[in-house]
Amino acid sequence: MTTPVSQLDYQDRVVVISGGSSGIGLGISRHLAALGAQLVIIGRTQSKLDHAVAQISAAGGRAIAYAVDVRESAKLAEHMADCKSRFGGIDVVIAAAAGNFFVPAERMSANAFKTVVEIDLVGTFNLFAAAFPALNKPGAAMLAITAPQAQRPMANQAHACAAKAGIDMLVKCLAMEWGAQGIRVNAVSPGPIAGTEGLTRLSATPEVERFVRDATALKHFGEVGDIAQAAAFLCSSQAGYVTGTVLDCDGGMRHGNFVSP
């Protein structure tokens, strides 16, 4: 018989999370810190990192931060080596850094397409590869944050759809390659989450916002906490036989009729 994810799963575990200073990433950071984990937050903006660390510390949690872009593989490797030296190893790695914007493909520059693919897809690989030598294995868990665009084509999202589809397959490939070493690799695919920048961009007008909400089977937006709890489960011992899986946490949006009005 299993028990719910609790402090027994995360007390003193070292969790590295990119994009952990805002939005869904920050929600995951705060949730895991509350469960007793030592958070290592990666992001590009020092002020956001400082604010995230302060929030976690004020709530009684533990966090440090590294200001680094996930596209900078060499710097990531240096920071992950420092993590191993400081904490003895890494238990959980979560890739939540992402970039996105809405633009028709014919108006998108090659650099714009490349930027999103590099942040989302290449950045996920860079983080996982940099952390690999520092993992406490067997028993380590890796998690990527993907999106419904990985499976559902969406107008004005060619770059994001391509990047997220790549993440889904990357997760499956790494699960196959690293499973024998006791490393699990999974992903969470969030739907429209209230209060996030992604939903704000997706819902430019009240009419579109209502349409997006109604495109979900549950007819309401999710909360950051929904994704945080899904992430906590997949990276815990409760999901010890789960790997190579993409968990849709989208209120049934993937199965809805999502065609913009």
What's the gist of this structure?
This is SDR family oxidoreductase. With 261 residues, the chain is an alpha/beta fold.
What multimeric state do the chains show? single chain
Please give the CATH architecture: 3-Layer(aba) Sandwich
How far apart, in Å, are the first and last alpha carbons? 47 Å
CATH class value: Alpha Beta
How many domains make up the 3D coordinates?
1
Radius of gyration in whole Å, from Cα? 18 Å
Q: Strand tally, please?
A: 7
Please mark out the parts with pLDDT under 50 across 5 or more consecutive residues, or reply none: none
Spatial sequence of strands, sheet with the most strands: 3-2-1-4-5-6-7
Main sheet specs: 7 strands, parallel
Q: List the total number of helices.
A: 9
